[in-house]
Design brief:
alpha/beta, Rossmann fold, about 35% helix
Length: about 290
């Protein structure tokens, strides 16, 4: 067989494999280069149920989230993915009618044990919200806020600089640190919030649709930043954008109606060869 024929067959096979992918837009999965073997667990959920009053929002969710990886939570609106995300650092404690049952382990400890301080927990498990929410303070004071809360006794200015560099914002703001964070663009504000979240040196960063309020260019910068952050932190992101999940995550969890975790696997498997028909139907747009 000639080299030309071999090359043609290889190209045809590549085209066939690409066409089998459930997302047919031009995205790449598993392209971040992070190894997937011998992973340690950062967060483990065991039979987690969540109720708002009498209404059940999460139904028996169990999953292990590996450290220093990006895990995407996807699913239709109202499926419970944001509720589950907020369980991890006990943000749901702020909702009076919310009740959480089951275990969520972080550092070998159930975060819902009575001796766990939620404020201390949130220093280790930071949060970035859908809408950028900088404080009406200077850029410097925004980033240093968590450090002052925890009475950090090191070099605050050095930590502020380090955090802004990690959030890919330092070059844009280093000459105006005393300016209000509210004067920044939307994308810059979201990166400022990321810098604020990482300044206290967390281990896990939770992101609840962090790019949904941003324009495509700003969203692309956040995606690139998430890829960089996963070198140092575990990143758990809720997104409605399945192409985004395919681009940036190592593993993907699919929540569907009733607050059920239907499938959780490597991102490539979820988008190219899911186990459940319901997941395939959701990804291909048959519902949701």
């Amino acid at each position: 067989m000639s080299n030309t024929e071999t090359g043609t067959e290889t190209e045809a096979e590549t085209e066939r494999q690409t066409s089998d992918s459930l997302i047919t837009t031009d995205v790449e999965t598993g392209s971040n280069g992070r190894a997937t073997a011998s992973e340690r667990t950062a967060v483990a959920a065991r039979d987690v149920d969540v109720y708002y009053g009498d209404e059940q929002a999460i139904d028996g969710v169990s999953m292990e989230i590996p450290e220093k990886r990006v895990v995407a939570l996807i699913g239709p609106s109202g499926c419970g993915k944001s509720t589950f995300l907020r369980c991890i650092n006990r943000m749901n404690d702020m909702i009076d009618v919310c009740r959480v049952e089951g275990d969520i382990e972080f550092g070998g400890k159930n975060v819902y044990d009575g001796d766990v301080d939620p404020v201390a927990l949130r220093r280790k498990i930071g949060m970035v919200f859908q809408e950028p929410n900088p404080f009406p303070k200077s850029i410097r004071d925004n980033v240093a806020y968590g450090l002052k809360i925890q009475k950090f006794d090191g070099d605050v200015d050095a930590r502020v600089e380090e955090s802004l560099k990690s959030a890919a914002l330092w070059d844009e703001v280093n000459d105006k640190l005393d300016s209000s964070g509210l004067d920044l663009s939307g994308g810059q504000q979201q990166r400022l919030c990321i810098a604020r979240a990482i300044a206290p040196d967390p281990e896990v960063i939770l992101m609840d649709e962090p790019t949904s309020a941003l324009d495509p260019i700003a969203a692309s910068k956040i995606e690139d930043l998430i890829d960089d952050l996963a070198e140092e932190y575990t990143v758990i992101i809720v997104t409605h954008n399945m192409q985004q999940a395919a681009r940036i995550s190592d593993r993907t969890a699919v929540f569907l109606t009733g607050g059920q975790l239907v499938e959780y696997d490597d991102t490539t498997t979820i988008f190219e060869d899911p186990e459940h028909d319901r997941v395939e139907d959701y990804i291909t747009g048959k519902f949701g």
